[in-house]
Amino acid sequence: MLDNSQIPIRKISGFYIGSLEPDFDLIQDDLANLFEKKPEVARNILDGIQGQNSQALEGRGAILLASLPKYGPLVIKSYHRGGLFHHLVQDRYFRFGKTRGQLEYEMLKQVAELGVNAPKAVAFAYTGSFFYKCWLVMCEIIGKKSLVQLSNENPELCLEMIPLLISQLAILIKNKILHIDLHPGNVVLDREGKLFLLDFDNARIVAWSRNSVRNYYLRRWRRAVIKHNLPDFLSEAVCQGLRKSFEEDDDDKN
Predict the structure, then answer these.
(1) What stretch of H or E contains 157?
(2) pLDDT, tens only, 179-227
(3) CA–CA separation, 76 vs 65, rounded Å?
(4) Which of 154, 144, 155 is nearest to 189 (CA)?
(5) Cβ atoms of 233 and 155 closer than 8 Å
């Protein structure tokens, strides 16, 4: 992970904003203005899948679409609690170390350096001290479609994308990075056909064997496909690809 001392954090208009962008001095005021706007309720990341089960895969947050010169369209993610705490404290967190926005910012930077296709992290911000509210600014993925959409609209193309997904997951597995919420709604293609992994909130490096990390992904992916009645080939192709890639690569057999 990035060292906290490497990231300049400045207080601007009541917001603590951190960024490694070379033009941070030029965009810091524009960023502060973005955080003052009210975000919309996050769209269902299952992209149109309806029904009670779809609620389980909604993002725990809200988003605001904006833009800045040079960066183009941006997504400003505001972190919201899920579960029972959502009804008590919707968007505040107890401060214990780094904020959730900073942790996801650092993870996005780290996986990008390793070769994982993830949204470009531009900045993070927070207000408050012991109880804080936080944001993450990312470049928007233009024209994105999730594997959920593709599995219904264009199954052939969706199946063609599975090897790309396997190669991306292989990087995470080899580096023992655990993406907590891996499912087809968090895998998207942009309008150029490039595959991206989304939502690295709470992702972390674990002291597990690589096969254990792989097995977590297999279980999480298959559970999502079954629970949300997605096409079986989504589960079968990913399970086959990951098992084939790692049965002989890891000394720790599970």
Answers:
(1) helix 155-174
(2) 999 999 999 999 999 999 999 999 999 999 999 999 999 999 999 999 9
(3) 6
(4) 144
(5) yes
